[in-house]
Design goal:
Elements (H helix, E strand, L loop, with lengths): L4 H18 L6 H32 L2 E3 L7 E2 L2 E2 H21 L12 H23 L6 H27 L1 H25 L2 E3 L8 E2 L2 E2 H27 L49
Helix pairs in contact: 1-3, 2-3, 2-7, 3-6, 3-7, 4-5, 5-7, 6-7
């Protein structure tokens, strides 16, 4: 098999996106606009935040592309690379909505301890990444750059909604893990075919089932960034929306075990992330 970068998208990414769109879930009326806005926002942020990082690493020689495998370049990166920023975000986001999640706030979602501990832990890892880039051995450049790029944003996400993310750990793990595993396979095939190669001089040389560990870490943290961002966006809209004048205590977030159901149409899934067939919803899908 001889693939181009655009061929990787055509063979491995676009068909999965088409399948996820075909099997997309029906969201409640109240969640359709926020879900679409979240996907658009995450795609825009991913493009803007990743573009300079990606191009600078290409210029540093962290990875390269096979002869004749790219159609055109903008700056140092191929056009297919920019497409991947958006396609990966869409793939992960559609998978997240396929399995379902409940953004309904509950008591304890803003607890300080898990937020602070999570943020500090990710900031510490970001600091390690920054040191590896600036002062560490050359072979840790790519790994350090990944940590310095992703971990400050993960720290911010946990500072905002760490307690909520911790309570939703199981569905979030599934939402992150499945696309990560699939993208590992796609990446491994592309590297084996010579579409792109990771430079030995700027990587550790450690492999996971034939995949450079840096690539494995990248897809893991990138998936986590997208999933966390999408669920926190909807959660924050519900948590911090203005209260109607004269609202009563019934408008406050429910507790995890008080037996109070969220208002009809406000959540797609149950507390464990599974789809609740009894949820009141309009039959219009997430994307019309």
């Amino acid at each position: 098999m001889t693939l181009t970068y655009l061929g990787v998208h055509a063979v491995f990414v676009l068909p999965v996106l088409a399948l996820l769109l075909w099997r997309r879930p029906t969201l409640p009326v109240e969640r359709r606009r926020p879900a679409r806005a979240a996907l658009l926002l995450m795609g825009t942020v991913a493009f803007a935040y990743t573009t300079p990082w990606d191009n600078l690493l290409i210029e540093r020689g962290a990875w390269a592309y096979g002869e004749g495998r790219v159609a055109a370049r903008v700056w140092a990166a191929p056009v297919g690379e920019y497409l991947f920023f958006a396609l990966q975000t869409a793939l992960i986001g559609l998978w997240l909505h396929r399995i379902g999640f409940d953004p309904t706030p509950v008591e304890g979602d803003t607890a300080r301890l898990p937020r602070a501990l999570g943020a500090l832990a990710w900031l510490a890892v970001a600091g390690v990444g920054g040191w590896l880039v600036l002062a560490g051995p050359e072979r840790f450049l790519y790994l350090g750059a990944i940590l310095a790029w992703a971990c400050p944003v993960l720290a911010l996400q946990w500072a905002v909604g760490g307690a909520f993310l911790l309570r939703r750990l199981r569905p979030i793990a599934v939402a992150v893990g499945v696309p990560t595993l699939y993208l590992w396979v796609v990446d491994r095939i592309a590297i084996a075919d010579g579409v792109w190669t990771v430079a030995a001089e700027t990587s550790t040389g450690v492999h996971l089932l034939g995949l450079p560990i840096e690539e494995a870490v990248f897809f893991l943290v990138a998936s986590a960034l997208v999933v966390n961002g999408l669920v926190l966006f909807e959660w924050a809209l519900l948590r911090f929306r203005p209260r109607p004048a004269g609202s009563t205590g019934s408008d406050h977030p429910r507790t995890p075990d008080d037996g109070t159901d969220p208002a009809p149409g406000t959540a797609l899934g149950t507390d464990d992330g599974t789809v609740d067939a009894a949820t009141d919803h309009d039959p219009t899908p997430i994307a019309d």
